[in-house]
Amino acid sequence: MLDVVHTGLTAQRLDAAAICKDAHDPRCGAVAMFQGTVRDHSSGATVAALEYTAHPSAARILRSIAEGLTLRQGVHRVEAWHRTGLLDVGDVVMVVAVAAEHRSQAFAAAEALVDEVKARLPVWKKQIMADGSHRWSGLESA
User: Fold this and answer.
1) What DSSP string runs through 6-74?
2) Global pTM value
3) Using CA atoms, how far apart are residues 37 and 30, in angstroms rounded to an integer?
4) What is the distance between the alpha carbons of residues 37 and 35, in angstroms, rounded to a whole number?
5) Which of 6, 14, 93, 95 has its CB surrounded by the most CB atoms within 10 Å?
C-alpha cells in the first residue's frame, strides 16, 4: 500500500515543485497545490520578516488534519509542509499538494486543508516590522 500522507514542520526551505511531484498518484487526474509565502505588508505596515514557532504537538496535528482529508471521495495523496524559524519576505511558509481523481476534489481538499491548518495548527507567527517593532498572531490556536 502507498504511503498516502506526508507532512512535516521544518526549519529547512520548502521545495514546492518537489512536494507537488511527490503528490503524484497514477489513480489521480489532478494535483492541486497551494504555496503560502511571506508578504511584505500587514494591516498597512511594512513587514521585514516573520518568525514561526510551533508547539510540540504541531506535527501530530498537521498529520491528523492531512489524514482526515484522505477520507474524502477521490482523494488519494496529501502533502502538507509548514516552515518554522525566521523567514524573509518571499520565502515559502507552507506547501500543500493534494492528488485526487478529479480537479474539483483536489481543489476542495487543498482549500479545506489550508483552512484547517489556519484554524487548528498550534503555530505562532511573530511579524517583524520594518520599523523594528513586532506583532504576534496565531496565539488563538494555542
Assistant:
1) EEEEESSPP-HHHHHHHT--TT-SEEEEEEEE--SEETTEEEEEEEEEE-TTHHHHHHHHHHHHTTSTT
2) 0.92
3) 23
4) 6
5) 95
Instruction: Kindly state the DSSP code that residue 139 receives in the 8-state scheme.
Output: G
Are 28 and 102 in contact by the 8 Å Cβ rule? The answer is: no
**Which residues make Cβ contacts (< 8 Å) with residue 64, sequence separation at least 6?**
none
Per residue in 26-72, pLDDT (tens digit) is 999 999 999 999 999 998 999 999 999 999 999 999 999 999 999 99
Which phi and psi angles does 111 have, rounded to 5°? -65, -40
Rg of the Cα trace of the chain? 16
Render pLDDT for 124-133 as a digit per residue (tens, 0 to 9): 999 999 999 9
Query: Any idea what the Cα angle at residue 123 is, between residues 122 and 126, rounded to 5°?
Result: 140
Of 83, 117, 90, nearest in space to 14 by CA: 83
